[in-house]
Amino acid sequence: MTADTLSPESAERLRADMVATLIEQGSIRSPEVEAAFAKVPRDRFAPEAPLTDAYAPQDVVITRRDAGGRATSSLSAPWLQAEMLEAARLFPGAKVLEIGSGGYNAALIAEIVGPSGLVVSVDIDPFVAERAGRFLAEIGYSRVRVVLGDAEDAAAEHVPEGGFDAIIVTVGVWDIPWGPLLAPAGRMVVPLRFSTVSRSFTFVRDGDHFVGLDPMVCGFVAMQGAGALPDQEAVLADGAVRLTLEEGPALDVAALDQALTGDRAELWTGVTVGRGEPFDSMHLWIATADDRFGMIWQDPERDCGMVKLAMGWYCPVLITADSFAYLAIRELPRAQEATEHRWEFGVCGYGPAGAELARHLHDHVQVWDRGRRTHTAPRFILYPAEALPPVPAVGRIFRKRHTQLVMTWP
Question: Tag placement on the chain: N or C end, fewer CB within 10 Å?
């Protein structure tokens, strides 16, 4: 039976359509990754999800939430899994460490590396580890070694002779303690947080440090355990709005909540963007220029009407103990002959220092637009914590427990 003769509702047809979409959009680029996605039944690792959701190329499937409703485990979107597998450059017989389990991604890896390869998948949650191991065994991938433990140190107990050929991290991490476990020519694909920004990097060794290649915008369930994210968080408007800040003074949640109901300072930048036009380097520039940089989030199901963010997720904000200013956006009127929609970035400030923060954020956006928007992206290098990396002329060093991430703008 061919894909064309399958029922539109069948898992096989949906899987074939997913693979075709991922190839068309360029996320699948090799026959090995294509074959793995075509064979492994994604729906078997997410039995609680409708088939159409399980095979939606762009969508995450949440498989576990905490008591507050926040996702703690998921199947990443297929496009992102494909991109990360392609970046890892797996091969038959490769030894691979996966941080963060769920089963499906480990099965894809096992399919690519084959019976002669090694796949070790580590997760801190007993529910997730048991479920992943059970699903893998049921589908025929019992050779995957599912390890229950804190990946901060548990992974080191399973490193093969010569190290892992690839390390693929499928949770959002703030630090990378696994560099010593990697083979000399190995590759680490890691979604790394720095100053609340998330980028998935492919790290390759270069002497005593790692070069971070192809930073890609992404979002993952946060790491738990010893490597948990150190962000401060202020939940405002009964949970409708949330601020996150990695560094800086302790946040006064009551004052920030009160600020949200007070007067607002509003400025518009004159900087515009068109539909589908990327502006993710703006986040990196503001994080470089201002250590008050954080993120503001709005619950899409609880619109309090108090904020109008430029984006629902990963929206830049400057935060102090009692004030904040975030990036806003508005659609511009079109001239009669114009065919393109344009939107203008603005800033909105709240609290005693809201107007000052709004002016600073306004200026950061304008500097990015004039000097960084169309220029080469920054370079990233990961050093050990004890190293003395060169201080970038334009850039920032993000110091962590095990490593230091150096971001340098040309």
Answer: N
* Active-site residue set: 76
For residue 17, give the CATH number of its domain.
Answer: 3.40.50.150
Give the pLDDT means over successive 10-residue stretches in the chain (410 positions). 52 96 98 98 94 94 81 88 98 98 97 98 96 97 97 95 97 97 98 96 97 93 91 92 92 97 95 92 96 92 77 91 97 75 95 98 97 92 97 97 97
Domain range enclosing 198: 3-227
Q: What gap in Å lies between CA 397 and CA 399, rounded to an integer?
A: 6
**Both tokens of residue 410?**
């040309």
CA atoms of 96 and 119, how far apart (whole Å): 5
- The pTM (predicted TM-score) of the whole model is 0.92
C-alpha count within 13 angstroms, C-beta hemisphere, residue 171 = 29
Q: What's the full length of the chain, in residues?
A: 410
- Which DSSP category does 332 fall into? P
**190 assigned to some structural domain:** yes
Look-up of token digits 């529910």: 127
Whether 108 and 87 map to the same domain: the answer is: yes
Q: What local confidence, expressed as pLDDT, does residue 305 receive?
A: 67
- H helices present in 182-339, as ranges: 253-260, 281-289
The count of structural domains within the chain is: 2
Residue 164 lies in a domain: yes
